[in-house]
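Just scan this pair:

***
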Amino acid sequence: MKKYRCLFNFALAAALALPALAQAQGYIARLLNKPVPGGVAVVPLGVHDSAPRVTYQDKPVMVLRDSDGQWIAVAGIDLKTAQGRQSLRMEAPGGVRKLDFNVKSKAYKAQHIKLKNKEHVNPDPEQVRRFEREYKEQMAAYSSFRNAGPSNVALDKPVDGRLSSPFGLRRFFNGEERNAHSGLDFAVPAGTPVKAPADGVVTIVADYFFNGKTVFIDHGQGLVTMYCHLSEFLVRKGQGVKRGQVIAKVGATGRATGPHLHWNVSLNNTRVDPAIFINAFQP
């Protein structure tokens, strides 16, 4: 009887400890760890005197010290990543280690959009060449990795408004499938001020074929945000901006059916669900 009482007491103590263990993660891990295709993996790195160097698929990864004092890697997961095990590579004073994490499944819905401008569905050869030039500029901005920053990873919403088209939608324009929706749309009126969600440096101010008037902000350590379909620019390339600073106004330029803000968030040159960073993620 005494033996069974001891076992019961041990099981009860373990059960009572579970909530505490669940809260053992730091603030950033609790906020951002959504390891699904198009999501974010927060991987603990342990205690080190300085930040380890981490890569994922040969790309540098953000490394931060969380609120619990532990170093963590914050890695973006590509939308096309299959369910299952993935690995980071960590270099620290103790040597090189492989750190595994598991990608869970997530299903994304489809969206059908009717466009009046047929060229935004099937552009002509000159427009294709323009898009290819613009695409290279954007990929270069996304691949930037400054060791400094970011000022914050719990991001502010760039506008106050209803979330419309979510990240990851399979998109059909006039019945033809195109790339999945790589950002988050806010349904707000034209002229609505757009604010920087964190400190950063403006790396692109341009008028693009599909995106319309576009701003990129580099927040540091591979965290890059993009703002599309704008009506007006209020910053210039190379300018430093502060969290909450107005950078542009909402419009309907480029491939848009009406005024709204399309907002992208990128980590380690991988587009991820912006809803994660504003605590609006839907599993």
